[in-house]
Design brief:
This protein has ten helices and eleven strands. By secondary structure, the protein is an alpha+beta fold. Strands 1, 2, 3, 4, 5, 6 and 11 form a seven-stranded mixed beta sheet that branches. α1 links the parallel β3 and β4. α1 runs parallel beside α2 and α2 packs across α3. The model has no long low-confidence stretch (mean pLDDT 95).
Length: 292
Amino acid sequence: MSKELWISNSYAKINLGLNVLERLDNGYHTIETGFCFLEWADRFELTPSGGNNLSMTDPSIPVDDSNLIVKAVTLLEKEAGLKDKFSIKVEKKIPAGAGLGGGSSNAATTLRMINKIANLGLTASDLMELGKKLGADVPFFVKGVPGFATGLGTEIEELDIQPDGWIVTIFPGIPSSTPEAYQCAEPNPEPEFSLKKVLLEEEIEEWQYLLQNELEPAVFPRLELVGNIKDQCYEFGASYASMSGSGSSVFGIFKQDFVAIHAYESFHSLGFSANLTRPLFKPDLGIYKKTE
């Protein structure tokens, strides 16, 4: 007897600039940042099943109730009346703890896939609202287009800022604590340059003078390797390089393919997890059905 198999990809993101504007009384921070996608994705396989089951190829990631995929399923059961059960298999390509939004992306992919397969009838806006309950980045991944995030990072305006350049992303293999990075950051309510305007109007070659990730000064003294990799990106010829989010991943944007490929291969040969993303990359968020 054949069984349904549904597949989809769950993509990583990077932050194009990040301003920490204000530290709130509850310990959270208001920020502004640009989100764009990487051609670095986990592969999802969902099969209708007699009970819920999650397996992941990365054994370091727990598959219990702490996993955002499990939380997404539970949320759909509670908020959308989901009755169907699924076996979920995830082939992990995005490194865990890299600051590339892998967990949030996985949660968003779970919401989108189950909504379609179980015919829950939720709109994209409905899914984004649910996503906010799972994590600040989840609505961005639900929407699936580059955007400008403000507030706690959950308010996202669609913005055409996917770079027209080759993106080389490097994971140093060491984790960076998000709470610690924000705790050590110095909020600045009045940035010198408009982040949105820079991303929309300035050439990538100008970004290194106009954009900044304000979490870098909080991370680099503790994790020198992260800062060294950023410097190395510029030495390899990057037009712009930065830490993504709270780290520890670093990316460089290159205008020429052969320069980017050389940088990618060099980091890879040093043993780092690395990725190469094409200019103006658009993620394929299709959910495809196969019959086994």
